[in-house]
Specification:
about 120 residues, mainly beta, 11 strands, globular
C-alpha cells in the first residue's frame, strides 16, 4: 500500500515562508487529486489546496496569492509553497490522495506554527 509522508513544517514568524513536501512511497499517477488539508486546534479539517493529475490547481480563498501547490508525478511528490504566513495559517497540515470519489490516503501530518 502507498504511504504519504509530509515534511517541511515548523515554526515561522508571521510574514515568513515554508515549503511543505509530501512524498509517496509508490506511484501517485493513479490518484486524480492530491493536496493538503489543515486542522487548527478546535477546528474542523479544511481543504487548503489541491492539484489534479493533469495539473489543475485549487486553493482556498484565504490563501490565494500566498500559497502555491504543485505536483510531480515522476517524483511522487506534491509541494505546497506557503508565503506571507499569518496566524490563521497555523495548524497541522495533512497530505491526501484521492481517486476521485473519496480520499484514499492520508499522511500523518506536519505541524505549522506561526509566531509574532
Amino acid at each position: 500500500q502507498v504511504h504519504l509522508v509530509e515534511s517541511g513544517g515548523g515554526l515561522v514568524q508571521a510574514g515568513g515562508s515554508l515549503r511543505l513536501s509530501c512524498t509517496a512511497s509508490g506511484s501517485v499517477a493513479v490518484y486524480e487529486d492530491m493536496g493538503w488539508y489543515r486542522q487548527a486546534p478546535g477546528q474542523q479539517r479544511e481543504l487548503v489546496a489541491s492539484v489534479t493529475q493533469f495539473g489543475t490547481t485549487y486553493v482556498v480563498d484565504s490563501v490565494k496569492g500566498r500559497f502555491t501547490i504543485s505536483r510531480d508525478n515522476s517524483k511522487n511528490t506534491v509541494l505546497l509553497q506557503m508565503n506571507d504566513l499569518n496566524f490563521e495559517d497555523a495548524g497541522v497540515y495533512y497530505c491526501f490522495a484521492s481517486g476521485g470519489y473519496s480520499i484514499d490516503l492520508w499522511g500523518r501530518g506536519t505541524q505549522v506554527t506561526v509566531s509574532s
